[in-house]
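During the reporting period the student researcher (J.K.) took over the structure-prediction task from the postdoctoral fellow and processed the backlog of single-chain submissions. One of the processed entries is reproduced below for the supervisory committee.
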Amino acid sequence: MFAISLGDDGAELRPLEPWQAEEYLAHMDRGREYIGQYVALPTVCTDLASARAFLQSYADKAAADTGRIYGIWRDGTLVGGVLLRVMDTAAGTCEAGCWLEPSAAGRGLVTRAARVMIDWVVNERGMHRVEWLVSSANTASVNVAKRLGMIKEGVLRESYPYRGVRHDMEVWSVLAPEWREQGGGAGAEGPTGS
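J.K. obtained the following C-alpha cells:
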C-alpha cells in the first residue's frame, strides 16, 4: 500500500479500501453533520455494512477503471478524502470531489490531496478534463476549485435537491493543458498502482 506525504504536518494520502470500513464509519460519525451539509456521504454510510458497501463500490470502480477513492490521514487518523466519482477513460473526462471532518478544516489538506490526485489522473491516466461540481453555498469547496486553478463554467440552477433544498450547482473544470501549464502537482508523487 502506498502513502503519499501531503506536507510536514503529518498528513498522508492513501487508498481507502473496504477493509477500512470501521475506521471510515468512525470518521463519518465524527464529522457527520459537517460533512453532510452539502454532500450525501454521511447518509450513505450509516452503519458498518453500508460503510463497507460504499467502499466496496469504489474498489469495484477502481477495478473497472471508472473511479477511485483516497483517504486523508493526519497523524494516523482518517480526517477526510478525495475521490474520482466518475472516470470515463475513453472520453478522457472525470469528476473529482472531496470531503473533510471539521477538526481538519482550514489546513489546506483537501487542496494538497486533490493536487496529487489530479496530477496523477492527468499525467498517468491521460484524462483531458477534470470536473468539480459543487453547491454554490459550499464556499470551502468552491475555494478549493479556485486554488486548483479550475475555471468556473457555469451554474446549474436548482439542479440538486438535497435535504429539502434545491441547490445551485457550480461546474468547475481544468483541462490537461491548463493543468500542465500551471504546474499542477509538479513534483508530486502520484497514487500509482491504485
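The committee noted the following: Residues 186-190 have pLDDT under 50 and may be disordered.
J.K. will present the remaining backlog at the next meeting.
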